[in-house]
Amino acid sequence: MMAQFRYSAELSGDGPALSAVGWKQTIMAECSPSVRLTDTPRIVLQIKDPTTRFPIQPLLDTVTPMTTLNALRTTALNARAAGEHGRAIEAWRALLRQAPDDWTLALELKRDLKSALHYPDSDPQFRRAAQHLPDAEWLAHYIALYAYHMDDLDTLGQRAADLLKDRPGHAALQALRADVARQRRDWPMAAQGFAAALRLDPGNAEYAAKHKAALMYQRVGAWLAAQTPHGHDYGIAVVNLDRNTERRAWTERLFGHGPAPLHRIPAVEGSRLPLSAVQRLLGCPADPAMRGTLGCFLSHAATWESLALQSLGHLLVIEDDVIPLLPLPARLGPLGLTPDYDICFVNDRLEPRLDPDAADAPSLHRLADAMLSFLPEDNAPGGDGYIISAKGAAKLLAWVAQDGFTGDLDWRLLAYGMDPPAIAALPRHAHAWQVLDRLRHGIPRPDRLDAYVLHPALIRTVGVSSDREDEDRERPT
Fold first, then answer.
1. Does residue 41 have a cis peptide bond before it, meaning omega lies within 30 degrees of 0?
2. CB of 125 within 8 A of CB of 117?
3. Under 8 Å between Cβ of 6 and 70
4. DSSP 270
5. Where are the alpha helices (DSSP H) in 167-244?
6. Among 35, 251, 317, 373, fewest CB within 10 Å belongs to which?
7. Are residues 316 and 234 in contact, defined by beta-carbon separation less than 8 angstroms?
8. What are the angstrom distances between the C-alpha of 38 and each of 69, 92, 251?
9. How far is it, in rounded angstroms, from Cα 472 to Cα 477?
10. Cβ contacts of residue 377 below 8 Å, gap of 6+?
């Protein structure tokens, strides 16, 4: 028989002897004397026969005194009030270890995760407890997500289906089921779900856009699947930190069984870089807040070096927070890459904003042309998915050896791929113009990459916390 105990101050007994086994000491209490337990944070109880001293029943359960739980809650709230969200997060996590399905604690954890600029669904403890949110809170949380964690799709889809039985006219639930299908690349089901949501909410622009996109990906996916070249002419390199084993397994499930071989590139952990090395590599006074950004840049440089070692002509470079949107081709020919290309961006953040109804197959667009449709307020084009040729990798390695590793990788790649007239053509109020114009003057380079963008995108990033940003925020000790 299992039981869970919570004690605020003391434990008393008049029957069998009680053995309170703490982490650091063992306290024996014979029959009636009281045993104070507040000095041990975790206690395990056994009930023993007073004569034989053998346990009457097996080890019961881990016990946390109520004072400890209250202290953790107080610590979390005080840390939040002081703006110390990292300390608050650890306290909420400690509480969730005691009550892993407590959805109220999940909401508290979510609040501090967001305040610390973390994505709540990156946290496994939050995801587990969030499954027990009441219907209204559950729906409000999950319909706001851009994408869902792969391991939760079955649970999400089933709960949405169950709720639809009682609320068949709820458009957001129909869209949620469609989003789950979208995450699975089940484009027919996604199109069907968004169409159902649109019938219930005809004026919803988001549902209309997602419905058109699902139909486009259904058509383009079918076209790619019909191309049957044999063998592969490229590899896939995923940038992944050694400590991110969950993301590594996730990426291997998604990309490890495709037509091209998957290679893992151990990412450089920027937070471990000595500040003296940071200063040398950046070519400016060391800023601890740029160590994660530098680690990301160096990790991608390692993928460019790996291209020559693998004796491949081309490499699809991805980060470990992306999912495929289309079936990857066995060879790159169907994507229409030119023989002299250096780099082709295939991520959704750089995808040209074209009419999805007109797309039946992949199309290639000059980077300079694609950037004209990049939204002025967008500040993260992303280096999470691009195809690079051996020639392009050699150029990049030679250029960064001269120019250093200052700034964000994605903007540097764009700056290397756009000449001054192309940058000057961007709107002056756009974030892209401000960054690229500064780079053009700060790192002048006469040559340019032969750069393209694919439409529609092959991959997209999902809603998980950024390792680069986390390491930038981590202060050196």
1. no
2. no
3. no
4. G
5. 171-183, 187-200, 205-226
6. 373
7. yes
8. 11, 21, 45
9. 13
10. 430, 431
Token duo for residue 132: 């027990």
CA–CA distances in Å: residue 8 to residues 63, 69, 101, 416: 11, 10, 22, 64
Q: What pLDDT does 202 receive?
A: 95
Domains and CATH numbers, the chain: 10-64 (no CATH), 134-226 (1.25.40), 229-473 (3.90.550)
d(CA 326, CA 274): 41
Q: Is 52 exposed, middle or buried (0-12, 13-18, 19+ CB in 10 A)?
A: exposed
pLDDT, position 385:
96
Residue type, 296: C
pLDDT in tens, 16-44: 333 333 322 333 333 333 333 333 333 33
Q: What is the pLDDT of residue 261?
A: 92
Is the pLDDT at 48 greater than 80, yes or no? no
Residues 6 or more apart in contact with residue 58 via CB below 8 angstroms: none
Over the stretch 266-285, which tens digit does the pLDDT of each residue have? 999 988 888 888 888 877 66
Q: What backbone torsions phi and psi does residue 210 show, to the nearest 5 degrees?
A: -70, -35
Cα separation of 353 and 371, whole Å? 10
* Model confidence, pTM: 0.75
DSSP codes joined into one string, 348-416: GGG-----GGG-SS-EEEEHHHHHTTS-TT-----SSEEEEEHHHHHHHHHHHHHH---S-HHHHHHHH
Of 407, 333, 332, 415, whose CA–CA distance to 367 is shortest?
415
Alpha helices (H) in 227-344, listed in sequence order: 245-255, 275-282, 291-309
Is the separation of the CB atoms in 413 and 383 below 8 Å?
yes
pLDDT tens across 223-245, in order?
998 887 777 789 999 999 999 89
Rounded CA-CA distance 384/348 in Å is: 9
Residue 292 and residue 281: Cα distance in Å, rounded?
A: 13
Cα 206 to chain center, whole Å? 22
Spatial CB neighbours of 211, under 8 Å, sequence gap ≥ 6: 191, 194, 195, 198
Per-residue model confidence (pLDDT) at position 284: 66
Task: Please report which helix (H) or strand (E) contains residue 105, including its range.
Answer: helix 103-115
- Residue 111 pLDDT more than 50? yes
